[in-house]
Amino acid sequence: MGHCAGDREQGRTMRESSGDRHIDNVAAATDGEAEALERLVRGIQPELYRLAVRFFGDPRDAEDATQEALVQVVTRLDRFNGESAFSTWVYRVATNKFLSLARSQGERRALSLAEFDEELSRVPSTPAEATSAHVADRLLLEEVKIGCTLAMLLCLDRGHRMAYILGEIMELDHATGAAILDISAAAFRKRLQRSRTRITDLMRARCGLIDRRNACRCRLRVPVAVERGCVDPHDLVFASSKEQARQFPEVLREIRRLEEADRAGALYRSHPDTRSTVDLATFVHKLFDPGTSAATGSAPTR
């Protein structure tokens, strides 16, 4: 189903390719081959960055977190023993790093589910005149839609948020999700079910995308988001493709054909790919290659 299948395919691809696409580079990188290390980091960076964007709710925070996770993966590469898929091991290392980091600015600003529900209940009847010109911009609608749904994830505590991302959005099986979070499969199922219920209940009650009978509409929230500084019409951080924005109405029709319980996950999977604006792979390569003068440990500039 268009973009809704993106993460399903991504999850399958990463699991299936862990024994083929990455494993040779893992062995060579462990033996000290710098080029293999860079290939490896470049191969896993997109998946980890995408996970970080969802977890922290902000691409800029995600870049910093992904950088730290990649460094963690590289420094522990010799500990990978092949008992699990390489992708599972990578996600576990990265997830542990994400969970150990200080709360991001987005997390500190996050509302509770009850507060978010109250916020969405206050729907403007018409767009404010000063910003009504922006409403026709499909990219602005995309920006508000993606930003709003990611903000919903931030309403969950870290443990439930990560379980929801792994199990519901990325559709990893319970055994893999449990291995990544280092909990039992039963505990993962319970955590996933609780988070799924909380997100689904909120969207079912308020979101016009999930249920057309709800009053909340992205076009009505654009002026509010712009006025509050949550969205800068001249510097969009999530919406990057006009073509994807143009296709979303058809994607939404497909989402609404699903069972209600499946719509929220499909909506998250419909988000466009967010790509890092910095070359983290080259940075990590330089950081760990003693033959380069750039191995100073300083972060790449944006």
TrEMBL record:
This entry's Gene Ontology molecular function terms read: sigma factor activity
| Classification via InterPro entries | RNA_pol_sigma-70-like, RNA_pol_sigma-70_dom, RNA_pol_sigma70_r2, RNA_pol_sigma_r2, WH-like_DNA-bd_sf
Q: Where are the residues of the annotated region Disordered?
A: 1-22
Q: Which UniProt keywords apply?
A: Sigma factor, Transcription, Transcription regulation
Source domain of life? Bacteria
Q: Where is the RNA polymerase sigma-70 region domain?
A: 40-106
Name it: RNA polymerase sigma factor
Where does this protein come from, organism-wise? Nocardiopsis gilva YIM 90087
